[in-house]
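Hi everyone, sorry if this is the wrong subforum. Our group has a chain we'd like a structural model of before ordering constructs, and none of us has done structure prediction before. Sequence below.
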Amino acid sequence: MTKAAKTRSVAIVGAGPVGALMAVYLANRGWNVHVYETRPDMRLPENKAKIQNRSINLALSTRGLTALKGTGLALDELIMKSGLPMRGRMLHIGNEGHLVSQDYGVHGECINSVDRAKLNEDLITAAEELNNVKVTFNHALKRADLDKGTLTLENKETKEVVDAHADLIIGCDGAYSSVRNSLMRYVRLDFGQEYIPHGYCELSIPAKVGADGKPEFAMDPEHLHIWPRHKFMMIALPNPDKSFTVTLFMPFANFEMIHNEGDLLNFFEQYFADAIKLMGKDLLIKEYFKNPKGSLVMVRANPYHYKDRCIILGDAAHSMVPFYGQGMNCGFEDVRILDSLLSEFNVKSTKEGESDNSLALALEAYTDRRTKDLKAICELALYNYTEMRHGVTSPVYLMRKKVESWLHLLVPSRVIPLYTMVSFSNRPYSEAYARHHKQGFWLSVAGAAVGLGTAAGLLVAGWKQRRQLKDAAGLLKAAFLTAAQSAQKLVQ
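Answer:
Right subforum, don't worry. Here is the predicted structure as tokens:
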């Protein structure tokens, strides 16, 4: 005799941005959703001071906005009310901080600086406003029996151990995921964790007082500011209160060389002199020695699911370094893609019996289709660190970017910059990465040709005006380097 259909239940472990958004999507499908979060409710005033925010400011771009819009609740508009568009990078070159602007796109495309805490709070509130969502704070997952669908959780305040049950368990609990640890007991899960030798420390640039007595931005707020120093760098993103959140990235070996206020000021005077004026010495000293020095970890796991019982999303499945600004965007895209697969495999909001082939097929398809994209973006994120701290000042890089932008304007369907494909489209990451490699050789050849032609022109013109020869020599050097790199790629 067939059992009566019952409404599906899901337990989402982790009420961060990805977990909260997943709750909204599944609630919209008619599922009964229960979210469990280890931390206290971050929206309560008494908890804001207790929760030490170690996160780097978030850059919201097309993939994230698409997922927010997909809820049908205008969450993209809600989040963007406090978002600040950044149309490019502003490089602070040399100790004097000479400013150089580099636009992200040729059509004025922007990424958006958003405050992680506010975004998270808004998404939790949006989820709780749905009748079929419940969020329980201060509960940490101890273990999960995936076959039975049971979770054992500990109340962090009372230490009471409680059990819960769900048809599906979703792990959105970050790089050190407890759900992933349970998943490892049920599947042959390939897992890798790697710390890069660089860490980070958050600082800030306060608003300045304008002529009218009101707060103003101390720098151009329409840019992501970068102080590239080859082996390390500092970045700054604007905030609605006219301040900037600043993040210093550098090897832990460098952090360990700074023991006191004198060491810190000497270091900043040597590498970031213009930033001292913007921050103020007292605030710099206070924040540097007060704020933690965070680690940067990469996590890779596969598969992401177990039958129709469990799946991991976001950092639990693919924690990446933050240098492409895609961590949150990728996590939000995880949610959107999983939701699309639930539709593709006709997974209903009710189920009959204990097992469900349609849900199992949807979760399996997620692992199959998402793996290569997540591998690609994790590699790109690490690659972009080298570009941000070093490549952006290279003549070869700048020449290639100029040629790429010009060709994109001329033949937009044939040549698309990698950053445009990653940040301003929903094109699969792996497809963007593959296309970038195909374009790379010919862009290098074109860049070399342009550089050689320009340098030759300067040499001819400079025959009578010798002072231009220095510029020509620089361009020739860049052009020959580009040509040599292109030839090397062709041989390989």
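For your construct planning: The longest strand covers residues 190-205. The chain has three domains: 6-85+110-193+297-387, 196-295, 394-491.
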